[in-house]
Amino acid sequence: TYGQEIAHVGLLKAAEITVSKYCPNEKVEDIIDEWNSLAIEEYKCHIPLKDKALELIKLLSSQGVHIALATANSKELYEPCLQRLNIAPYFEFVIDVNSCKDGKDSPEIYDIIAAKFNCRREETLIFEDMLRPMITAYNAGYNVVGVYDKNSTSDEQENKKYSHIYIHNFQEVIDL
């Protein structure tokens, strides 16, 4: 679907795909401006954490586990959200797909994080809720925790296939 095609590639590439396939008379910059204006309010004020995510982040942090964020969102969206949710201090490193050539279609974004912490792929745990990035990380040799998301229920069986563990909420990981 269209949503699956653009959800993991970053704003610029998503707008380019949208223009080339669906809106040839639009400008990429105009689409980005419109999307940003719609999304900023949501991320600044409304987007919640997934159930028990804060508890898991705190637990991992207390145990000295390095925590990073690899996101398909732009800095203008994720920074206000991380601040509002009071979780920014837990992330030692944040990177978005705009820093990578192929977004989450390539393991580059995960490789940058692993290198930052001097970890091998097999020592790195990727929590992911979108199918294409799960496939990318899984095929690259990362340990993938597939995370249920209400927006990807149609992909749930495939998500499970490309996850070493599949969870519906983060309490399941805490219990492990």
Task: Give an overview in words.
This protein is mostly helical and 176 residues long. The protein is built from nine helices and five strands, in the order ααααβαβαβαβαβα. The chain has helices at residues 2-6, 11-21, 28-45, 53-62, 75-84, 108-116, 131-139, 156-161, 171-175; strands at residues 68-71, 93-96, 125-128, 143-147, 165-167. Strands 3-4-5 form a three-stranded parallel sheet, covered by helices on one side. Helix 5 links the parallel strand 1 (68-71) and strand 2. The radius of gyration is 16 Å and the shape is globular. It starts with a helix and ends with a helix.
Outline the fold blueprint:
Blueprint: H1 2-6, H2 11-21, H3 28-45, H4 53-62, E1 68-71, H5 75-84, E2 93-96, H6 108-116, E3 125-128, H7 131-139, E4 143-147, H8 156-161, E5 165-167, H9 171-175
Parallel strand pairs: 1-2, 3-4, 4-5
Shape: globular
Subunit organisation of the chains:
single chain
- Alpha carbon gyration radius: 16 Å
Contiguous runs where pLDDT drops below 50 for at least 5 residues: none
Adjacency order of strands in the biggest sheet? 3-4-5
The total count of helices amounts to 9
Structural class: mainly alpha
Largest sheet: 3 strands, parallel
The fraction of residues in strands falls at: 5-15%
Pattern of helices and strands: HHHHEHEHEHEHEH
